């Protein structure tokens, strides 16, 4: 090979290497730019954290719905597609109820912080006092306001600001075994109509005493329990039977009054007379449920969910409100709904509010509340035929009361309340002592809540 050819080949090789280096460098630059673009797209994306505890839910609008997680996933998917103000990705998390503290308070100021919470007002009302929960009045239109009963709005508010959005209603009343009533000659207190009855205090005494005298020894007239906090709201409602409001106008417990002491004494007397299951201080509400299902308890708790289960059994039962001094009765009204948290990101907060507003302004998603008791009047009217078995609860709305008083430490109030009921059932203290003790211990927990309470600015 001559010298000229070698020079030409050398030049070609240098060009090839140079071009290869150019394309390699360009490829890397392109890849780098691609990663930057991807990163930029991720930065523009808003991740919204929606959380819910495990809650059963059914809907006549969608047979696939069996829990709140499925409902929220579907709504979130549509919102992501339809929302125009930002590129939103929604993460829906379902958690066990015992993990709630970790999932909500434990995640404050982290990437997993809750932006929207859907659950029972039971615990939601407590979070208002963390300073993270925002009022939602700015997203509530007149149409929304008029579509939901004032009783529901009142339970959702604190200091005239709406911190929780009512979506589903749940109402606990008492129910009674008609066959056991007939067995002891109490037919006059039974109705065949699908309504929630009211019995006077005198009626209750006649019914309970007759059941106690005429039922077999292993069958009990009425539920009672004190082992833990489960079902405590029902006991609290019984403590209103003699005219006590249980709360004062400032949300503190007010039981050390003539009316409160009389109610405590009534429960003590019921226990002594054998109206309650034996050793009720050592049993829980689930034990009373089992007794009722086995035909060993004449009066138990009922609600729309239990109603659906009872209809599948051969138990012949009726409904009645908790006793009251005026004979009109009480029910314990529970609500499920939405709450929005401010985690320091204005854009994310706007999206969180817009998601909640989207649920209430969109007929499709409002309709999902038709399964339990819808808080929306328009949904109740639209699904009136399917909701026939819920109509008795809708008609009974005015008998409900706000059993948390919107106090800032309800979970700890519950923790100190039930040991007092255990003492009541032990029967070693007077009604006066117990009324004062319940008031003092519960108010101590409430005061601690107010000491740490901070509302959103």
Explain what this protein looks like in three dimensions.
The protein is an alpha/beta fold and 457 residues long. The protein has two domains: 45-170 and 335-391, 3-Layer(aba) Sandwich (D-Maltodextrin-Binding Protein, domain 2), CATH 3.40.190; 171-333 and 406-451, Periplasmic binding protein-like II (D-Maltodextrin-Binding Protein, domain 2, 3-Layer(aba) Sandwich), CATH 3.40.190.10. The chain has helices spanning 3-44, 68-82, 100-103, 121-127, 142-147, 150-155, 178-183, 201-214, 232-238, 258-272, 285-293, 304-310, 346-361, 363-366, 377-382, 391-395, 410-426, 431-451, and strands at residues 45-53, 87-95, 116-120, 157-158, 161-162, 165-177, 196-197, 220-222, 246-247, 253-254, 297-302, 317-320, 331-340, 373-374, 400-401. The strands form three sheets. Strands 1, 2, 3, 6, 7, 8, 11, 12, 13, 14 and 15 form an eleven-stranded mixed sheet that branches. Strands 4-5 form a two-stranded antiparallel ribbon. Strands 9-10 form a two-stranded antiparallel sheet. A hairpin with a 5-residue loop joins β9 (246-247) and β10. It is globular and about 70 Å long. The termini are far apart. Residues 1-42 have low confidence and may be disordered.
């Amino acid at each position: 090979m001559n010298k000229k050819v070698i020079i030409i080949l050398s030049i070609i090789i240098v060009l090839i290497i140079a071009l290869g280096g150019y394309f390699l460098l360009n490829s890397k630059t392109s890849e780098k730019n691609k990663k930057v673009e991807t990163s930029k797209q991720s930065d523009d994306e808003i991740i919204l954290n929606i959380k819910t505890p495990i809650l059963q839910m059914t809907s006549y609008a969608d047979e696939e719905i069996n829990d709140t997680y499925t409902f929220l996933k579907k709504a979130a998917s549509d919102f992501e597609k339809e929302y125009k103000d930002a590129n939103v990705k929604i993460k829906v998390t379902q958690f066990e109820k015992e993990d709630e503290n970790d999932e909500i308070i434990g995640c404050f100021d982290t990437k997993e912080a809750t932006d929207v919470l859907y659950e029972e007002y039971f615990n939601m009302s407590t979070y208002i006092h963390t300073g993270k929960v925002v009022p939602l009045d700015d997203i509530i239109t007149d149409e929304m306001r008029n579509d939901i009963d004032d009783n529901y709005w009142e339970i959702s508010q604190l200091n005239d600001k709406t911190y929780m959005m009512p979506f589903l209603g749940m109402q606990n009343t008492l129910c009674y075994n008609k066959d056991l009533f007939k067995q002891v000659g109490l037919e006059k207190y039974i109705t065949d109509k699908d309504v929630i009855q009211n019995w006077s205090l005198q009626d209750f005494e006649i019914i309970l005493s007759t059941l106690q005298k005429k039922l077999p020894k292993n069958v009990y007239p009425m539920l009672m329990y004190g082992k833990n906090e489960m079902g405590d709201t029902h006991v609290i409602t019984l403590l209103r039977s003699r005219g006590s409001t249980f709360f004062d106008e400032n949300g503190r417990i007010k039981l050390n009054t003539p009316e409160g002491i009389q109610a405590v004494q009534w429960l003590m007397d019921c226990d002594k007379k054998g109206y309650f299951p034996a050793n009720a201080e050592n049993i829980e509400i689930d034990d009373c449920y089992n007794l009722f299902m086995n035909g060993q308890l004449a009066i138990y708790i009922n609600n729309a969910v239990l109603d659906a289960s009872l209809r599948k059994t051969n138990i012949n039962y009726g409904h009645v409100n908790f006793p009251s001094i005026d004979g009109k009765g009480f029910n314990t009204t529970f609500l499920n709904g939405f709450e929005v948290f401010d985690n320091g990101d204005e854009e994310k907060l706007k999206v969180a509010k817009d998601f909640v507003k989207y649920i209430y302004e969109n007929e499709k998603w409002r309709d999902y509340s038709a399964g339990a008791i819808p808080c929306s009047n328009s949904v109740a009217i639209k699904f009136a035929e399917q909701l026939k078995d819920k109509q008795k609860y809708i008609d009974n709305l005015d008998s409900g009361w706000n059993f948390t008083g919107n106090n800032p430490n309800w979970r700890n109030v519950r923790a100190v309340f039930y040991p007092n009921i255990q003492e009541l059932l032990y029967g070693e203290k007077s009604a006066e002592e117990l009324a004062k003790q319940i008031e003092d211990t519960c108010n101590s927990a409430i005061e601690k809540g107010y000491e740490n309470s901070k509302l959103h600015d």
